[in-house]
């Protein structure tokens, strides 16, 4: 008898203590704003996501997984000792930037290690079959962090470290990292650029952040050539375009790669309300993407799926996207309705939800033309 499906949830109140400071741009002259604007990476985002999971009765149906504090040994599978030292020194001061736009406050070293350790704990639980799938609702995010510096609100690269954990501790030969954050996962791409054991697929808004990263012709090098798949999409691509991307590119490539674990770098900043990007995904879009990866995981690797939180900055909307992902993972009870979209009826009727734009179709064609060298798509 198969046991009941179990989905893990990593969350810890200490994530809410990660302090990015008062404003986004504090060191430019002349002052960009007369009044500081709150840093977009607010603790309220993951806090609200957790509260929504509680209010909708989702969290109580998930298995609590405690994060660990990632050790030096675990972090240095990717990061340089110099980066660890710098982060530790900044955390002992009043805080500062750990690289290029990745601020922490006093004590922030510990929170960043807890974020990496939360993703590690999720992967451990999935790889040991303690749970079938897991959502690591961690903070700070990770996918921009490079080996030697923090970047773009990310201090340590949680997904990279967790993928290496799956390989080194659990013997996984092939790990798929799908990054649907609206920005490009440059740190993750860099980690596996020449490595065919980790397939990195990123779907993101074309040339948004970081500049120069994530172009369609960035495919990896050496043995890793073909194991980096970049899918840059035009602003305004919504549910319909993303569904087409999953159907024609992501799902077929993922199935051919046949991963033993799927990690999703889940940024909910491709949402229709996000202040930092110009995509139009709604809750239905996040539900569809989650279902697609659950199906691939079921087919290829007994459902082993670990989702780790990346960005998502719409205070009143991104938490609903995260809660919807969690609800999709645990499944609806017989009398339960999916979370109602706060965007209202427009979520279903806006053009981006129903139409594949010409620009998006062309972007997909460009990806197919390049990736058909490596994959039967
Ligand atoms: Zn992002």
Structure overview:
With 377 residues, the protein is of the alpha/beta class. It has one domain: Histone deacetylase domain (Arginase, Chain A, 3-Layer(aba) Sandwich). It is built from twelve helices and twelve strands. The strands form three sheets. An eight-stranded parallel sheet has the order 2-1-6-12-11-8-9-10, with helices on both faces. β8, α6 and β9 form a beta-alpha-beta unit. α7 runs parallel beside α8. The longest helix is centred in the first third of the chain and has 20 residues. The protein is globular. It starts with 6 loop residues before the first strand and ends in a 6-residue tail after the last helix.
Number of helices: 12
| CATH homologous superfamily assignment | Histone deacetylase domain
Q: What is the second-level CATH architecture?
A: 3-Layer(aba) Sandwich
Under CATH at level 1, the class stands as Alpha Beta
Q: List bound small molecules.
A: zinc ion
Helix and strand sequence:
EHEHHEEEHEEHEHEEHEHEHHHH
Helix content: 25-40%
Quaternary class:
single chain
Beta percentage is 5-15%
Number of domains: 1
How would you sum up the global shape? globular
Q: How many runs of DSSP E, i.e. beta strands?
A: 12
Query: What integer value in Å does the Rg equal?
Result: 19 Å
Nutshell version of this structure?
The chain is an alpha/beta fold and 377 residues long.
Q: Which helices and strands appear, and what pairs or packs with what?
A:
Elements: E1 7-10, H1 43-55, E2 63-65, H2 72-75, H3 81-92, E3 96-97, E4 99-100, E5 103-104, H4 108-127, E6 133-136, E7 150-151, H5 158-170, E8 175-179, H6 186-191, E9 198-205, E10 228-233, H7 239-257, E11 261-266, H8 283-301, E12 305-309, H9 318-330, H10 346-349, H11 351-354, H12 358-371
Parallel strand pairs: 1-2, 1-6, 4-7, 6-12, 8-9, 8-11, 9-10, 11-12
Antiparallel strand pairs: 3-5
Bound molecules: zinc ion.
């Amino acid at each position: 008898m198969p046991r009941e499906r179990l989905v893990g949830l990593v969350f810890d109140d200490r994530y809410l203590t990660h302090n990015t400071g008062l404003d986004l741009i504090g060191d430019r002259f002349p002052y960009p704003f007369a009044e500081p604007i709150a840093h977009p990476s607010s603790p309220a985002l993951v806090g609200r996501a957790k509260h929504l999971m509680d209010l909708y009765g989702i969290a109580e149906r998930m298995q609590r997984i405690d994060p660990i504090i990632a050790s030096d040994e675990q972090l240095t599978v990717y990061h340089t000792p110099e980066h660890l030292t710098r982060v530790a020194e900044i955390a002992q001061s009043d805080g500062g930037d750990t690289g290029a736009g990745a601020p922490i406050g006093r004590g922030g070293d510990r929170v960043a290690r807890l974020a990496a350790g939360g993703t590690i704990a999720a992967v451990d639980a999935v790889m040991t079959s303690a749970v079938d799938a897991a959502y690591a609702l961690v903070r700070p995010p990770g996918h921009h962090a490079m080996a030697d510096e923090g970047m773009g609100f990310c201090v340590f690269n949680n997904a990279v470290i967790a993928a290496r954990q799956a390989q080194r501790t659990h013997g996984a030969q092939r790990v798929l990292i799908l990054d649907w954050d609206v920005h490009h996962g440059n740190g993750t791409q860099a980690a596996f650029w020449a490595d065919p054991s980790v397939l990195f697929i990123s779907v993101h808004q074309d040339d948004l952040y970081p500049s120069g990263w994530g172009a369609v012709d960035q495919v990896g090098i050496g043995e890793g050539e073909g194991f980096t798949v970049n899918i840059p999409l035009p602003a305004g691509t919504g549910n319909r375009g993303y569904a087409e991307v999953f159907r024609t590119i992501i799902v077929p490539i993922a199935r051919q790669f046949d991963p033993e674990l799927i990690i999703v770098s889940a940024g909910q900043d491709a949402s229709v309300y996000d202040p930092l990007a110009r995509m139009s995904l709604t809750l239905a879009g996040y539900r569809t993407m989650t279902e697609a990866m659950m199906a691939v995981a079921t087919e290829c690797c007994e459902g082993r799926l670990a989702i780790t939180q990346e960005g998502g900055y719409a205070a009143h909307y991104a938490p609903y996207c995260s809660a919807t992902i969690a609800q999709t993972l645990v499944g609806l009870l017989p009398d339960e309705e999916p979370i109602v979209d706060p965007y209202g009826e427009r979520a279903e009727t806006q053009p981006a939800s129903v139409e594949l734009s010409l620009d998006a179709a062309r972007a997909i064609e460009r990806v197919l033309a390049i990736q058909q060298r490596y994959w039967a798509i």
